[in-house]
Design goal:
- This protein has about 260 residues and is α/β, with parallel strands linked by helices.
- The chain is built from 7 helices and 10 strands.
- The two termini are about 30 Å apart.
- Adenosine-5'-diphosphate binds next to strand 2 and helix 1.
């Protein structure tokens, strides 16, 4: 197996020749065509591509919500295709997810939203929960807002609460699906900087799906581009126009406005 896509030694997530298609045989739509990549442990990987190119499908494959038609999806070296229901459930506790819109509960306060995973999934006492949530509120600059309801928060603050909640169970891998939807460019930049700082402090593996191109590239340890079934991996955005893959060069030309080689 080739390991040329790994940035540093160990990979948290690995796709090996993964194919995924949808639909009936006659009008089958091939979304991922033998794609391979690794997400290095403890680093930030950004997945970018146009709408409908399969970015969310990749996250669902990582979570085991979808299965590949062929190829392997490995999480911490374990092939999720060969896992049963129980093992998959156990595997999911490794993940924190922050999807579009933050998915906060409107009828719960900031504190209650963040405390929810701890109340539902751990046996911590009320006092332990209170101190854990307080620590996260401080880290994400939310102290003083704990009694507010989501409707009273700015867009950026909602994203921070969503991140705080996603981090409560101390995940090893955090997945973000277009987490800046609805934010203006300045707020988008601030939120990404906070994400990266938080990732560096806590050390989890981050996978961020984004269409905030090219701003997001400066925050990534690794960039994965997806276009028309092809995927290419970069550690340096300046190399993107020189991809050996025609569909990726096309994407660079269209989205980054750069001349391709
Ligand atoms: N469960 C599904 N059933 C059928 N088609 C799907 C399903 N999930 C995704 N697709 C198709 O796969 C393609 C990629 O979808 P998606 O990963 O959501 O795109 P995006 O890159 O915008 O996140 C789209 O054409 C979408 O219609
Ligand atoms: Mg999507």
């Amino acid at each position: 197996m080739s390991d040329e896509t790994t940035v540093s030694g160990e990979s948290a997530i690995q796709f090996v020749e993964v194919c995924k298609s949808f639909g009936e045989r006659s009008k089958r739509h091939l979304v991922l065509d033998r794609v391979s990549f690794s997400a290095p442990r403890g680093k930030t990987t950004v997945i970018a591509g146009g709408s409908g190119q399969g970015k969310s499908v990749i996250l669902k494959l990582i979570l085991g919500l979808l299965r590949p038609d062929s190829g392997e999806v490995l999480i911490g070296g374990n092939n999720i295709s060969s896992m049963g229901y129980k093992a998959l459930q156990a595997q999911r506790t490794l993940f924190g997810v922050l999807f579009q819109g933050s998915a906060l509960f409107d009828s719960l306060t900031v504190f209650e939203n963040i405390a929810l995973p701890l109340r539902e999934r751990t046996k911590l006492t009320a006092e332990e929960i209170r101190s854990r949530v307080a620590a996260t509120l401080e880290q994400l600059e939310l102290t003083g807002h704990e009694d507010k309801f989501p409707a009273q928060l700015s867009g950026g603050m909602k994203k921070r609460v969503g991140l705080a909640r996603a981090l409560q169970l101390e995940p090893e891998i955090v997945l973000f699906d277009e987490p800046t939807t609805g934010l203006d460019p300045v707020m988008t930049r601030e939120i990404y900087e906070l994400f990266v700082q938080t990732q560096k402090r806590l050390g989890y593996t981050a996978v961020i799906v984004s269409h905030d191109i090219p701003q997001i590239f400066t925050l990534a340890d690794q960039i994965i581009l997806l276009n028309k079934g092809e995927l290419d991996v970069f550690t340096d955005a300046s190399q993107i126009p020189f991809s050996t893959k025609p569909n990726i060069r096309e994407f660079a030309r269209l989205v980054m406005g750069q001349q391709t080689a």
